[in-house]
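Q: Sequence in, structure out?
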Amino acid sequence: MEEQFLLPDVEDPDSAPFWQAAAQGQLVVQTCVDCGQRRFPPRPMCYRCRSLRHRWQPLSGRGTIWSYVIAHPPLLPAYEAVAPYNVVVVATAEDPTIRFVGNLVESPEEPFHRTKLDRLQIGAPVRVVFQRVDDVYLPRWMLETSGR
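A: Exactly. Output:
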């Protein structure tokens, strides 16, 4: 049996709209209709006002590396062959309390485990790109270059 990477459930009722937007190249978060609180990860109820009403709000797809780790073996069997690799936590430009976990990549087409690890730096500006893995479009991050 061949090992596979862990992929999210794109049909989960709370997060399906997130994955649908990702497939269209857009980064979105839930926003409470009643109090305006943004939230990620998606959930059925606002943690601030307990409203069950929300909308999906697009973000710019820009942020900064808030934290990172370089994963080394031993790992889950599916990831052992690609180690070491990076895992980044990105604070979004619109709301730094909204953070995404992903990987830094060199280009939208380059696998996450081929990134030069010396490029990782807390506070570095990044922008989202989406990489297709099977039928899931995963948000990954690229360093912003000056002049963009």
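Residues 12-58 form one domain.
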